[in-house]
Amino acid sequence: MRSVSILSFLAPALLSGVSAAPFNNGAACGLPAKVTTYVTESHYTPPPEPPTTSISPPVSTSLPPTATTSISPPESSSTSSFTSIPVSSSTSLPASSSTSTPGPSASCRPTSWTREGHAPSVGKLRAALIFVDFPDMPANTSVSELYSLVETAPAELYKQMSYGKLELELVPLLDKFYRMPAASSSYNYSRALTTEAHLKYINDALTAVGPSVSFAGIDVLYVLPAKYASEISTSTATSADVTALDGTVIGNSVTFGQDLYFSWGYKTVNHETGHTLGLPDLYPYVGGTVPQWVGGFDLMGLIGGQSPDYLAWHKWQLGWVADNQVECIASAGKTTHRLSPIEVAGETTKAIAVPLNGTAYLLAEVRSGLGIDAGACGTGVLLYTANTAVSGGSGPIRVIDSKPNSNGCGNNNGGELNDAPLAVGTSFNTGLGVVVTVTGQEGDDYIIEVEQRI
Ligand SMILES: [Zn+2]
């Protein structure tokens, strides 16, 4: 783990009482106003009883059951089929060749993807941390205890996920818990949280900090509550502009809840920050189960999933996977492609994309047990659809299950879809006019043949 460089940088100013500008690196924020709020309430699990304390433990809110039911592939599931083919040689296949269509095409990239209003996904993302407590729920831990939970792990995770392209720099105010002006119970923070209530909470936190702290140069505001402030139950992100008392407009904010401390741990930071980068929730807002659409793939769905790395679709959107690392198949024919695992860095091809209409795509990528997906139980070629016209919480990405009714990997951590990837020697008709065959494997790379029939 890397050292406490941020803490040591801030400590002198904080300890000396200087009203310095710990968040000010001279850059301007100035993002346009937007109002997008993501609520992670479906992720919340009842926390354990806190250690000896007179403060009430967090409330027990309901947790959606984990997936145990079979989820059909999107749309034409009735026409999908799974067949076996002879396993090919693992040494004789070409390294990515197209037999009837052009190779990589930048034109395949969705035109709706923009970075406007989002935190930077490449380079440095500077996130200010404010620790708050409440008149009805004073802190009974140290600030440093809470900070230690997020100090290095989220940044390290992003370093791996982005292949070193994104540096999450935390800039914490470590001197104290800032006392919110209202009781924790007054914010109606849990399941009925409105955008207005959320913004009041954020603005109250900024007011508690006061005008002497400059937030200039800050991309994202993190607000962390006292550890046992049970009313502040779930973590939530918003892309609505807020204005700190020093006049800085902050374009993205995350307010963390008990789920950070007691349910999902530090990956909550990567999930919520994912929203500030422009990524949607992959679990259903209404009904269903958390992993019903993407299983344990991509922590924008199930944060505690067995294969939490962002999907290639998201890495492409964020600029971590380049346009020329996504081979687009825009016309009928049969093509062969070599895919390297999404979890490892490199300039190789990471995905194929087949445009289905103006907004929907079929994608294939390789999931391995490498890197942060070391806990993966299902590896191979993962097929899924992505649709830019479908909003978060409504299923913008849906994994196609090549092994329906298999009970996944035999556990509920991602449910039925955890074994969705295709193994070498299998062919799958997606029901979308595309048949994908995994013809071989070379090292960690997979060779696939894609037949587009329409
Ligand atoms: Zn979310």
Fold and architecture overview:
With 454 residues, this protein is of the alpha/beta class. It has 2 domains: 216 residues, Collagenase (Catalytic Domain); 199 residues, no CATH class. Helix content is 15%, strand content 22%. It is built from 7 helices and 19 strands. Strands 1, 3, 4, 5, 6, 7 and 10 form a 7-stranded mixed β-sheet that branches. Strand 8 and strand 9 form a beta hairpin. The N and C termini lie far apart (50 Å). 50% of the residues are buried. The N terminus is likely disordered. This is M6 metalloprotease. Keywords: Hydrolase, Metalloprotease, Protease. It comes from Lindgomyces ingoldianus.
Please outline the helices and strands.
Blueprint: H1 5-15, E1 37-39, E2 81-84, E3 123-133, H2 143-150, H3 153-161, E4 166-172, E5 178-179, H4 195-209, E6 220-225, E7 236-238, E8 242-243, E9 249-250, E10 252-255, H5 258-262, H6 267-277, H7 312-318, E11 326-328, E12 333-339, E13 351-355, E14 360-367, E15 380-387, E16 397-399, E17 426-429, E18 434-442, E19 445-452
Parallel strand pairs: 3-4, 3-5, 3-6, 6-10, 11-13
Antiparallel strand pairs: 1-7, 2-17, 7-10, 8-9, 12-19, 13-14, 14-15, 15-16, 17-18, 18-19
The structure holds zinc ion.
Low-confidence stretches: 1-34, 39-106
- Overall domain count: 2
Based on CA atoms alone, the radius of gyration comes out at 23 Å
Report strand %: 15-25%
* Biggest beta sheet attributes: 7 strands, mixed
- Molecular shape: elongated
| N-to-C CA distance | 50 Å
What is the CATH top level name of the largest domain? Alpha Beta
Number of beta-strand segments: 19
CATH topological fold name of the largest domain: Collagenase (Catalytic Domain)
Helix percent reads 10-25%
Structural class: alpha/beta
Give the cofactors and ligands. Answer: zinc ion
Average residue-wise pLDDT: 81
- How large is the count of helical segments? 7
**What is the CATH architecture assignment of the largest domain?**
3-Layer(aba) Sandwich
Give the topology string: H per helix, E per strand: HEEEHHEEHEEEEEHHHEEEEEEEEE
